[in-house]
Amino acid sequence: MAKRTIVSMPGDGIGKVVLEETIRVLEAAGFKANYVNGDIGWEFWCKEGNPLPERTIKLIEEHKIGLFGAITSKPKDAAFDELAPELKEKGLVYSSPIVGLRQHFGLDICLRPCKSYIGNPLNFIRRGQGDAIEEPAVDVAIFRQNTEGLYGGVEWSNPPDQVYEALMTHPKFKKNFEWCPKEELSVSTRIFTKKYTERILRAAFEHAKKYGYKSVTVCEKPNVIRETSGMMYKMAQQIQKADYPNIELWNTNIDAQMMWLTKNPETYGVIVAGNMFGDIVSDGFAGLIGGLGFACSAQINPEKGIGVFEPTHGSAPKYADYKVSIVNPIAMIESACMMLDFIDENKIAAKIRKAVAEVIKEGKVRTYDMMKMAGRADVVEKGAASTQQMADAVIAKL
Ligand code: NAI
Ligand code: MG
Known about the structure:
Helix content: 40-55%
CATH architecture of the largest domain: 3-Layer(aba) Sandwich
Number of domains: 3
Strand order of the largest sheet: 2-1-3-14-13-4-7-12-10-11
Shape: globular
Largest sheet: 10 strands, mixed
Strand content: 15-25%
Mean pLDDT: 96
Distance between the termini: 22 Å
CATH topology of the largest domain: Isopropylmalate Dehydrogenase
Bound molecules: 1,4-dihydronicotinamide adenine dinucleotide, magnesium ion
Order of helices and strands: EHEHHEHHEEEEEHHEHEHEHEHEEHHHH
CATH superfamily of the largest domain: Isopropylmalate Dehydrogenase
Structural class: alpha/beta
Radius of gyration: 22 Å
């Protein structure tokens, strides 16, 4: 079979090391691929004025599959300060290349699974009856609409006249906000389209069906945000009734969900939400299974067969320059397993997941976060595994 080509985008900071170690794991597991390097991140903003160069977009267009580490983003002024002197006059404005990738390729389906590993000392525990300690097994798959909603970027401060006039035609705007001078108004819109709402809902139901989850929970706020959340829930009811009668449809409000997730996280299966609530609820569940060192994700355009797979953590700049890297590579390794699932290499994915599970269960090799240490350069001397040692341990189990 022809070898696949994977666009490897290490990005900045710890993105570089977690991706390098992950590729080592993939190779050891017998996944045969060519890796081409895709430039992305801060370095290219500073040198070229574009953190997502056109050549990287071309590579993804051609090869369709990307593994992404992490990037560094900085506020507008700091970004401008670090721009190469010859680019400073060009009126360039920094924007996040990962958000850019999502929008350019329409990676509207974001999946963030949160499944606890047996033996992970970071697993959530709670008090049961009497003084009993319970460690609920969390196995939740969060589907987040990745391109619309509050992160769609349609926003204004001191909105243009036509926008202001349009807003004034809404009785509630007139009643509640007319008092505010236009110059003091900031507006961020929350746009949902039927097409992409249906896509994320169907992806969630399909996943529940394929992997045997008994419920799909819409996690929004339809009682208050009636138009967007309301549309999503109503469509979910129709889809469930027509095509997934054997899967239960639940409806929770995002605020209540954040409370329920520490009371009874084991109750939930598939969760589906718009962009911002999906972002929030996925971080909430990730906290129950070990946090950023374990939180993986897939971002997919199913129509075009394009997928970019990445840990949800950032570039952790404070650890980036340690001589021996201390960060946990599992989130990146797990993200690569999601890539393998996407390209039908399920057997290799299962093999890697089993190896990771064995390392965690055995408990001999643990990165600093798993040892509940503060992240410092000397953690390896104190008994924590380095990034490389963790990858070695996984490879040894393969
Ligand atoms: P971060 O995720 O980089 O780090 C937060 C803290 O989490 C770290 O200090 C570290 O204690 C811990 N951590 C992160 N990854 C870990 C790992 N693999 N193993 C163990 N511990 C880990 O978030 P922060 O500090 O808010 O942002 C740093 C930079 O990353 C910023 O420039 C931010 O814009 C960017 N960022 C990029 C993302 C991306 O590329 N998708 C996502 C989040 C932040
Ligand atoms: Mg987030």
